[in-house]
Amino acid sequence: MTARITDADTLQRCIGALPGPRDMKVIDHLDAWAVRWLQASPLAFFGFGDAEGIAITVGGGPAGFARTDTPTTLDLPPPRLDDPRLARVGKSFCSLWLVPGLGETLRINGQVAGVEDGRIGIAVRECYLHCAKALIRSDFWQAVPDPLAAPLTPVQAAARSRFLVLATVNAAGQADLSPKGDPAGALLQADEAALWLPDRPGNLRVDSFRNLLEQPRLSLAALVPGQTRLLHVRGTATLTTDAAARARLAVGDKPPKLVTRIAPAHWAVRDSAALAAAALWPATQPPDDLAPAEIFKAHVRLNRSSGLQAAMVRAAVAVPGLVRHGLDQDYKKNLY
Fold it and tell me: What is the reported pLDDT for 222?
C-alpha cells in the first residue's frame, strides 16, 4: 500500500476545502427541532470512548425512547441499548439518530454524566443535522423486512452491507460518529489482512479522519437494510490514496478520493435486539412537521459563531428556498 496520509493538511487537500466556516450548522444544546427529532426516532447508534479507544452499540424501540428534560441533557434507558455496559461516567459520547423516511440524521455529542436510577445521563456538547447522502446511497428506506435471512460470516456480511456507522475518537478523547452508505460490495471489501472502506463526497468536515490521524483505533457497525444483524468491527485504521485501493472501490467511473484500511482486531456478526425493536422496515412516512432544510437554517441562526463569514452564511440561508434547493442539487449531483 502506498500514498499513506499522515497529516491533517494533506487530508484536507485530498478531500477539499470547506466552502465556509466549519461549524456553522453546529449548536451546543438541543433546540425544539432536535427534541422533535428525538420524539420521532426509533433507532440510534451510540459511541462511548476515551483517549484509548471507542466502542459502538445500538439503541432502539418505540419512537421517542430517549428523554430530554433540559436543552443540555439527554437521558437514555439502558434496556433499549444492545450493550449498555459501554456507558460509564466520564466517557465521551456520540450518537446518530434516524427517523423513518428521512435521509438526514441527527448527531448529538457530549459526555456520560451519570449512570443511575435506570438511566444513562448525557451532558450535551454538540447537536447538528447530517446530510442524507449515506442513506440515499444505501437505499436504506427502500428495504423490506428480511427476518429469515440466513446467518452470514463476517466476510459475507462485509460484502453485503450497504450502511454502516463509523465511531472514532481523537487524542483528547472526544468521540464522533459518521454514517457511510453504498451499494453492496462498494461499502466494505475484505481481503486476507484487512477491510477497506471508501470515502464518498460528504460535508467536508473530515472529523472522523482527523480523529484517526490522532488515534487510529476505531469501531464500526455495518448492516444490510431490512435485516436485524450487525457486523461489529474493532480495529486500527490507515488512510491512503493508493490508486489500486481506490480503483477497487469505485462506483461506476467514480473512485473515492481516499480509502481507510482497517486491520480488524475483532469482528463478528451479532443479532441486534435494538434494531429489531425499532421495526424500521417497511419505512413509514416521515412526520409532516420535520423539515430538514428548516432545521439546517434554524441551527445556523442559533450558532454562536461571529465574524464576516458567519454573517454571510446566515444571510444566505435566510433566502427563501435556497437551502432546500441546495440540498436537492447536492444530493442529485454529488453522491459520487
Answer: 98
**What global pTM score does this model have?**
0.96
Asked if 123 and 113 count as a contact pair (C-beta separation under 8 A), the reply is yes
The answer to whether the beta carbons of residues 207 and 175 sit under 8 Å apart is no
Tell me the torsion sign for CA atoms 44, 45, 47, 48. Answer: positive
* Helix residue spans in 255-317 (DSSP H): 273-278, 292-302, 308-317
Q: Please provide residue 14's backbone torsions phi and psi, each rounded to the nearest 5 degrees.
A: -65, -45
Integer CA distances (angstroms), 306 to 21, 26, 126, 262, in order: 10, 13, 17, 39
> Residues 96, 59: contact at Cβ < 8 Å?
no
Distance separating alpha carbons of residues 115 and 274, to the nearest angstrom: 19
Q: Kindly give, in sequence order, each residue whose CB lies less than 8 Å from that of residue 277, ignoring residues fewer than 6 positions away.
A: 42, 60, 61, 62, 80
Rg of the Cα trace of the chain? 19
Residue type, 141: W
Residues 6+ apart with CB under 8 A from 167: 45, 47, 49, 54, 55, 56, 94, 175, 176, 177, 218, 219, 220
Pairing state between β 217-223 and 229-240:
antiparallel
Question: Three-class SS of residue 274?
Answer: helix
Burial bucket for residue 135 (CB in 10 Å: 0-12, 13-18, 19+)? buried
Span 213-225, pLDDT tens digits? 999 999 999 999 9
Which whole-number Å values give the CA distances from 184 to 160, 161, 189, in the listed order?
A: 5, 6, 9
The region of weakest confidence among 91-105, 260-274, 301-315 is: 301-315
Rounded-to-integer distance, Cα 155 and Cα 152, Å: 8
